[in-house]
Amino acid sequence: MKYKIFIIFVLFFILTTKSFALVSVDITRGNLDPLPTAISDFYLDSKLDDKIKNLKLESKIPELIQNNLSRSGLFFALEKKSFIQRPEPAHNKPRFEDWAFIKTQVLVTGKISLEKEGRLRVEFKLWDVVSATELSALAFYTTPDNWRRVSHMISDKIYERLTGEKGYFDSRIIYVSETGPKVDKKKRLAVMDQDGYGVKYLTLGNELVLTPRFSPTSQHVTYMSYFKNLPRVYLLNIETGIQDLVGDFPGMTFAPRFSPDGKKIIMSFAQEGNSDIYTMDIKTRVVEKLTDHPSIDTSPSYSPDGSYITFNSDRSGFQQIYTMKSDGTNVKRISFGEGLYGTPVWSPRGDLIAFTKLYRNKFYIGVMRSDGSGERLLTENYYQEAPSWAPNGRVLVFYRETPSDSSGRGGGAKLWSIDLTGYNERLIQTPTDASDPSWSGLLSGK
Amino acid sequence: MQKSLKISFIAHTVILIISSITLPFLMGRVQAPLVMSVDLVQIGERTNIPYAPKVSDGAKTDKKIKDRVVTEQAPPKIVPKEKPDAVPLPENIKQIKELLEKRQNPVKVEDLTKQTSEFEKKEIFDPNKISALIDKSKKDNAEANNKPSLEATQSQQKNVVTSKLTITQEDAIKAQIFKCWNIPIGLPYNENLTVRIKIKLNPDGSLVSSEILDLARMNTAGQTYYKILAESALRAVKLCNPLKVPSTGYEKWKEMQLNFDAKEMLKG
Asked: Is B9 touching A (CB cutoff 8 A)?
């Protein structure tokens, strides 16, 4: 007994001395300010011929990277004028003090050299100025005229290395280009890089086209067009230009979208005022009916793993968002707010569903979790709809119409992008009016 | 009988040895409650509430009354160095009070008052100041209640208390790092990605070293997210160098472990 007391005494004193532990501070908050970034001009290998030198890629590539990163809202690009160190030594071994002096946290440098058969080698390095370390270094090989694509790929690598999330710069957007007077609009399918460059028209404008959607896995597009005065779903290969009617339905088919594996198309089929959701296997053309309800079920969109589908339906009396398993079972209403909800689109990350909401004569683009919780409205306007996710699930593209004046002039649709914070809203420049955008997956794959 | 005597003797010696080692160590840390009591006075000064210190510090006034009795006894004799306490007998009572206060509180405490206040003056933005004041006022109450019990309780309890930063001090450090830490926005919020960094500081708050405590994880394949978070946390620590630190209690904060966790922010 006495021994025990003795031991307890000894332990007590030892423990009291040990209890002086390291002070621990939990840092659970930080800032989401744009990261100060310096993108140095790249330096040109002296062996390059004049033809390539004249392209001025040493400044054009960094500019494009800068444009991409700045538009994302997550980076703040510092003025080139403030840079102290020249591109070549900076690429080989940056003097970090010089870069820290201008208050940048990261630095991008690069080098352009010529390889065999006139191919370019574009190399970049990403430096952590604060910790004075190299974060990544990669080289791309390409033909000189493909420099934009390379710049987008470099932007993606930088974005991913610093944010932890895949980039979305090496991607394209398909949309409906609108020209002509309001009563007789010419609508053509057009595709461009995500930053608005390189617009190509895919249809002539003879028929009305609507709701083009990119395949997540190939250069195919599905869209709606009119055939014998009935809207029908088509499939188009944008490389070859070959188009194809999807299925042989007696009524109208509309609101098509690809399944995540690109093998099926999911869409609405309407007959006698009732529309339901169907899928069709592109290869075998086997059709499957997923909903069977006397209400209007439309705008279906798959979850990224293909196991669930979200759609909108007016079965409750008002148009609301629902989810169901991909075999059509387990239908569940997820939107319960006031107003009407439409065009739900499942995020490529799987966590969120974007939608258009009409409430008190205003249109909103918003997101909610896939169980319907956490509804957040990102932007409000006179008329806007049809959100489509960037491949990384952080940015949405949609179109917005401005009202025309009393004489019927002005007013038109433009493409806009907004990120999940709701603060970084940007116009995407298009040569014509534009609507119904759809973002492709990453061109370089995953 | 002899055996138990021996045991008793050994036990006593051991306890004496251990306490001779630990007690000075503990003595060094008994300052924190005193630090807090000084904070009380300070708030009174800051907020200019008349009598605030007196009201909040009942124990002290009692003591003062006792001491006044002593001084009252002394003047009639007009013999300065009569008392064994060797309390000088100044002519005005203010001086007496000052002296008495000095005697009651160790000199170090006075340093603490000054330095804590300097530290708070350095705080970066006003909202924090407000919160700091609120924190303190809470502490005031807490301390008023705690003070007697602290004196009565075991030294162990004091030791635990003193090995932590005060809430105000902790908040001030958090606020600085919050400004320096640029969160990688694309990280998943449903994974455990806490990055623990141990920092060592000089007394002026400048960084001696910073090390990631789970360095192995940083270089493990498939831990890209962790790596990105760790890099951003390291940048934050370096950008915040030198940290604005309380200039007392260096022993407490010369080494700190910072746990970076962006989960709440990423959830949005």
From this structure: no
Q: What is the nearest CA distance from B220 to chain A, expressed in angstroms? A: 16
Cβ <8 Å between B174 and A131? no
Residue A4 neighbours by CB under 8 Å, 6+ apart: none
pLDDT digits (tens, 9 = 90+) for A116-173: 888 899 999 999 999 999 999 999 999 999 999 999 999 999 999 999 889 999 999 9
- Which residue has better confidence, B104 or A13? A13
Sequence-distant contacts of A187-195: CB under 8 A, at least 24 apart: A189/A221, A189/A223, A189/A236, A190/A430, A190/A432, A190/A434, A191/A221, A191/A238, A192/A430, A193/A148, A193/A152, A194/A152, A194/A168, A194/A169, A194/A390, A194/A428, A194/A439, A195/A64, A195/A67, A195/A68, A195/A71, A195/A152, A195/A169, A195/A428
Q: Which residue of B has its CA nearest to A20?
A: B163
Confidence of residue B116 (pLDDT cuts 50, 70, 90): very low
Side-chain-facing half-sphere of B174: CA atoms under 13 Å:
20
Q: How far is A21 from chain B (nearest CA, A)?
A: 7
Q: Which residue of B has its CA nearest to A16?
A: B156
- Give the residue from B245, B258, B232, B210 showing the smallest Cα distance to A32: B232
Do the chains contact at A22 and B255, CB–CB below 8 Å? yes
Residues 15-34 of A with CB under 8 A from B: 15-17, 19-33
* Contacting residues of A for B25, CB less than 8 Å apart: 17
Does B184 sit within 8 Å of A27, measured CB to CB? Answer: no
Q: Are A190 and A175 in contact (CB under 8 A)?
A: yes
- ipTM score of the complex? 0.82
- The pLDDT, as a whole number, for residue B80 is 46
Tell me the residue length of chain B.
268
Which of A62, A363, A160, A17 lies closest to B156, judged by CA?
A: A17
**Distance (Å, whole) CA B262 – CA A27:** 8
CA dihedral angle for residue A69, residue A72, residue A75, residue A80, rounded to 10 degrees: 40
Q: Which residues contact A399 (CB under 8 A, 6 or more apart)?
A: A175, A384, A385, A386, A413, A414, A415, A416, A434, A435, A436, A437
Q: What is the pLDDT of residue A18?
A: 47
- What is the count of residue pairs from A and B with beta carbons less than 8 Å apart? 145
Annotate A257-289 with DSSP letters as a single string: EE-TTSSEEEEEEEETTEEEEEEEETTT--EEE
Q: How close B110 gets to chain A, by Cα (Å)?
A: 24
- pLDDT per position as a tens digit, A397-446: 999 998 877 776 667 899 999 999 888 999 999 999 999 999 999 988 65
Beta carbons of B100 and B83 less than 8 angstroms apart: no
Tell me how close the Cα of A244 comes to any Cα of chain B, in angstroms.
Answer: 39
Chain B residues 142-171 with a CB less than 8 Å from chain A: 155-156, 159-160, 162-165, 170
More confident residue, A122 or B223: A122
